[in-house]
Each structure stands twice: as structure tokens, then as C-alpha cells.
Amino acid sequence: MGEFELIRRYFLPLAGQQKSRTLILGPGDDCAIQRIPAGRDLVFSMDTLVEGVHFPRNYRPDYLGWRALAVAASDLAAMGASPECFTLALTIPTADEQWLAGFAGGLRRASKAFGLVLAGGDTTSGPLTLTLQVHGTVEQGAAIRRTGARPGDLVAVSGTLGDAGAALDYLNEANPSPDIAAVLDRYHSPRPRLALGISSRGVASAAVDVSDGLLADLEHILEASEVGARIDSARIPVSPHLKRLKGDAALGYALRSGDDYELCLTIPAECWRTAPDAIRNELSVIGTVESRPGLVLDGKPCGADTGFDHFKGSP
Amino acid sequence: MGEFELIRRYFLPLAGQQKSRTLILGPGDDCAIQRIPAGRDLVFSMDTLVEGVHFPRNYRPDYLGWRALAVAASDLAAMGASPECFTLALTIPTADEQWLAGFAGGLRRASKAFGLVLAGGDTTSGPLTLTLQVHGTVEQGAAIRRTGARPGDLVAVSGTLGDAGAALDYLNEANPSPDIAAVLDRYHSPRPRLALGISSRGVASAAVDVSDGLLADLEHILEASEVGARIDSARIPVSPHLKRLKGDAALGYALRSGDDYELCLTIPAECWRTAPDAIRNELSVIGTVESRPGLVLDGKPCGADTGFDHFKGSP
């Protein structure tokens, strides 16, 4: 099967499965064309997944298709952007039809679930690597940046943290218990917080998605905003599954492991009080922003080496 | 050196070296933000380069930095788009500072030469692979597509063809002759035809960049436009260097080898007569579009297997 046939059979159907409000030319030409409505900004982010680094070797292709788009879409959620379309650069060792069908299936489900239409990309042969770029839009000036946190703001996180990181200990489990199955699902099928991100525009002062670990990602907000924060470990949301599986170690996963793709937001106290239930019900307040730089956990300063770095490895 | 330090040292300077008219938030947040002026469309394209597939192993990093952006920018030229910004996904085995300095240097020169500002990206560890996405803009509806060729239009190409393909025979030449040095330069330092692309808006009916080989890329226009073409090998532009190096074989390189990044355009005859010298002087007319499908070279039909396909290899 040649490159063009491969694209035609597995990827063009993704371009046609749903309409995008802004994509006016999809795959098949030298470039794609998007028309951004007047009064809106284009918001975009690029993410790479490498086999053996970001996902295990021989990883199920349908999981990979979903995960790849979910990971990229999570950055749109963190800016409060409405999803529009995406591009895919797929590098694969051989054109294995069974693998491609599985991958395209996972990608198609994610594409529909997140409202992201395939706009174009590139298919090449080489070691298994994916790069996706996602495009969203926001009203001009309304994107939630990392720079807006101010002393006195509350620090909040969505959902529960640590499940996806704990899942790495169980990837080869043949007969997973219900608790193990629950954390594995968090790893294989992350659900980017797109609706929450959109609802948080005009409410949150800063946002980041939790991809590298809560402490590491919160540090990104603090550095960009030139502030510090004090957080309380007893308030970090941990799932009952993780508690049962890891006991006292659960907190470490929730603080330091990545791949959960929840949102960490800072919210001015007055905005929190008046925030709609759609936001309040999704979030746990875990601390407050302070003017003094640095991150303080249960009264003790946290070091800088708090998350995953590709050229240093895990801490 | 960690991932963030690496980005800070080698890539953030590229984001700051020049202003973009449309990029309002560059690297450092979850997403970048671009504001497309009212009345213009966003035009974008993604390209991947894999070590050992798209460029030789141990390729000079400064050449790679230039080439990677040139290859991607060439797709903007083919749409007639004005360059704006780009994203870079760089996957490298180790954070080798000498390599990174060379790569960033080549990329910086290309970025300035093409008017493309670094908007963001991702840096990961793994087998050497690059994916770039370039963003340009055109007046709404003015992008040159592959679908617009009509019977009677002239077929034209810019510059000369085949040099970059011939260069592959001399990549390890220790003391290149002037002719060999000239074709090597075409391979190492391609110059995407951005100015010609912009000038061709409103003149050309269809366009493609010559990345896989003239016959293969012209076929893309013919298929998309549902037409055929008749071209004359005597009119294919070949450089004196290529003629001296390859003699009678030069034409084969010009027809079938890729990597030249010239433009192949179709132009209605009346537009050609009135086209400005800026366009006429850059182009050679090599044939005409016909209603009967298929590509005819010197009166004989050409087969479909005319260019490079990643999952079949070279013809």
C-alpha cells in the first residue's frame, strides 16, 4: 500500500465525518485553509508522542489514536479555547493495515468526542512517532494564560489526580481488578477538560493542564505569573481506586505523576464565590496564591525537581 | 541540560528575533495565539523529516535546520500565501549542545530569510525526527489550489529542476568540483519560492511545489483538476551544472527526482500574456493542460509511478 492510498483509506474519512465551522479546505492540497471568524483568535498547540518514551512499545493502536488527540486537545482546554481542527504527522515503520485500522478508529472516536476535524498532515516511514497540532478559537483576548495568577487567588484542580501515573504499574496486568481497571482507563482514555476550560473563561486568572504532574505544572503558572502558592495535601483530590491501590503512597502519585490531563486553575476569590455550579462542581480548591515566590506544600517549600523532564528523566 | 533549559537557550531566541504581524503569543504557554486580520484566511501545512529517510544520517545540523523550514515553507509558496509563523516538534536522541547550536543556527537563518517566526512546539527525546507546521495568510478565497487547472492553460515551472536529486550522488564528495558544489547547494539550501507564489495569486489557476519530482507533482494538479497535460521534454529547464555532470541522463533527474522545491503552475494563456515580468522571468513554459486525463510527455503517455512514495520507495 502506497502513502497516498494509505491516507485515502484510513485518514480522509476522518476529515469528512463532521463539519468544522472554520475549516474551509481540508487534506489533499499543499496546505489546509481555515477562516477564523472576525473577533476571534486562533489558539494552537503541538505535541509529540514517541514510542517507548510517551507510550509503551507495542501499545494498542486504538488507545494510541485516542490518547494522541486527547493529550494535544488538553492544551486547548488549558487556554479555554473552543476546539476546531487538527493536523497529524504520523511516522510508522511499515504500513501494517491492522495497526492502521485500529489507530484510525481510536483517532476517529476522539475526533468526534472532542469536536476536532482532521485538517491535514504528513505520513512518513520511520520509528513510530506522532506529532499533532490542535487548533481552537477564543474571543479576542479571552484566552486563559499562565501569567494571570495574583496573590489571594485560589488554586483549584479538576477531577482526581494520580490515577494515570499509578496505571503505569499495571500496564501488563492480565486480569485487572476493578480498581486497577479504573486507573488503567484514566491512562488509556484521558478526557481533556474542554468544556470546563471554556466555562472558565472570564473566571480563572490562569490555567495549565496537568500533564507532567501537579507540582511541576503549577510551578509553570507560578513562574509565568511571578508569584508563589501554598497548597494543602489533605485537599488534593484522589480517587477511591488510587487510595485502595496505593494507600499512603497515593498522595505522591497525585502530586508528582503526569498523564491525568486535568486542569489546574487559579481563580480570584470573588470569582469563585459567584462561579456557576458547572465550574464549582468540577473543581477542588487546594490552596492559595501568595506574593512570595515558590511553592509551599503543607508549610514546607517544594524543590524545583517536581515533574517529568524528557532530558533528565523522572525525578 | 533539561528540556526547559534547552528550549530557553536554543529556541526562545528564534521567537524574539523578529516581529510577526499576526502572532500575539509565542512559546511558553499551553498554546500560542495568532490573530488573523479581518478579510484574510489562515493557510497551514505540516511536514515531517526523518533521519535516514528524508536526510542522511549524521547530516550537518545547520543544513538540517535550514532545510526543514525551507521544505515546509515551500507549501506556503505553492498556495501563494504570505509567511507568518511556524511550530517545531524536535525529537532528538540526546541534548548534544554542539548539534543543537548548529541546528538552531540554520533554523534561525531560514526563519529570517523566509519571514517565519517561531510560535511554539515540542521537544522530546527519541530517534531524530522533525515535524514543522508553517502558517501563512492570504486574502480570503485567494489561495492557489490544485483544483483550478483548465484545458488550454499553460504549464510552467520555476528555476531549474533535477539538481537536488543529482546531489544525492555526491553527498560524500570530499573535494567537490564547482558543478558538484552547485548541485549540492541546491540540496542543502533549498530556497522556497515564496515571492513567486505571492506574485502568482490571481495569475496562476493551480500550483504545486516540486518536492517529489516534476511528473509526480504535476500529476497531483491533473488529478485534483480532473484534466490532463501534454509536456515537452526539450522545454524542461535544466541547469548547466546538471547537464555537464549527467549529460543525457540530466532530463531523468529533472523529471523524476525531488527536493528542488521549485513551483509548477498552470496559467490561463491570457493571464500569461499580461503577467508581470516578475513572474514571466522566473518561469519556463513546458506544456499545456488538456481535457483528456493523463500526462503525455513528448507525445507518449507517462505511467503513474513517477515519483517518490514513502511506503513504496523510489520508482
TrEMBL record, chains A, B:
Binding site for Mg(2+) 3: 30, 75, 209
E.C. code: 2.7.4.16
Signal peptide residues on this chain, from the entry's feature table: none
Domain PurM-like C-terminal: 150-297
An individual GO BP term: thiamine diphosphate biosynthetic process
UniProt-listed SUPFAM superfamilies: PurM C-terminal domain-like (SSF56042), PurM N-terminal domain-like (SSF55326)
Residues annotated for Mg(2+) 5 binding in this entry: 212
Function per UniProt: Catalyzes the ATP-dependent phosphorylation of thiamine-monophosphate (TMP) to form thiamine-pyrophosphate (TPP), the active form of vitamin B1.
Leftover remarks: Reaction mechanism of ThiL seems to utilize a direct, inline transfer of the gamma-phosphate of ATP to TMP rather than a phosphorylated enzyme intermediate.
Protein name stated in the entry: Thiamine-monophosphate kinase
Species for this entry: Marinobacter guineae
Lineage: Bacteria, Pseudomonadati, Pseudomonadota, Gammaproteobacteria, Pseudomonadales
Record gene name: thiL
